[in-house]
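Chain A, query sequence.
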Amino acid sequence: MIGLRLAWLLPLSLFGAAELKLTSPTNYQVFQRQARNEGRLTIAGSRHDADGAQLEIRLTDSQGKGEWRRGEAGLAETFKLDWAAPAGGWYRLETRLSKEGKILAEQSVEHVGVGEIFLVAGQSNSANHGEEKQAVKSGLVSSFDGEIWHLAHDPQRGASGTGGSFMPPLGDALAAKLGVPIGFIPIGIGATSVREWLPAGVPFPAPPTIISRVTKRDDGSWECKGAAYANLVAREKQFGPHGFRAVLWHQGESDANQKDSTRTLPGNLYQEYLTRIIRNSNQTAGWPIPWFVAQVSYHVPGDEASADIRDAQAALWKAGLALTGPDSDALKSAWRQNSGKGVHFSGPGLREHAARWADCITPWLEQQLSQK
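Chain A, predicted structure.
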């Protein structure tokens, strides 16, 4: 009896039972499409099975339609496949091990998409500091926090703050216009200067208002510690070349018109530093990532714009280093928190901000897709 009881506690694999586990994709994962109608999935995992078992894979649509296709054969304990798939979703991914007509093991992922992915960076209005949390209405928008994909209801994991963001309504708008799932990679950090996004060790003459992310040098100048930049590059490399569509950059309030004027960043330096961030990160990532740069310098009524910072942001568009983002300084009054008195967006402001981002992204994206 003791021997029998121990046998029940031993792993089934010791008795030759087949096992199948998936590590990619995960639920609600979006893969970047490479053309209007197609993209590629990474299907990875591990297997333990009897000799000659066949790995089979299929994607099924919302009607349950899909055909089984053969994966690799053999007894390798791990596998990683680059799998062609049509743009769209959500799909259900099904995998199984079969031998002589018998199904030995099965694994599935309920929501897998092939669509558009955007990395969102900058300061508080790129993160979760809006007045009202937003929720995904289409069911077709997810976000990635560095480890896990999930529906993109606010707050967005991976970015600072616990309030609302423009990502759920932007994702809904893009999903409606493009007909594919949308993914976000949120990494925005509230109150950050462009100086705090520089690579580690890059010097600048005067510090930003908040100095926790920078350090003073022996010669009296300052340099960035590089944490925000390192996180940016880590996410870019995690997705690989052409693994997402573009960066959406919304930042500038913490460089414009600071109460201590010595902490205000001149426009020419803002342009120089953001140029460096874009070029260096693209070089490290290994591909020419498109960057959308918004016009951003608004604080409160009476301090609604910095011509110097706005001109620096526009100069990046004119130089061809960045694509034109929305003019968020134009969003005032009821579009701002605290009945129009704050720097962050109200609920209507978040939705309007999203609509203006969609107006910038959609025509450019349609042009990109028409060329492939």
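The first strand starts at residue 19 and ends at 24. The radius of gyration is 24 Å.
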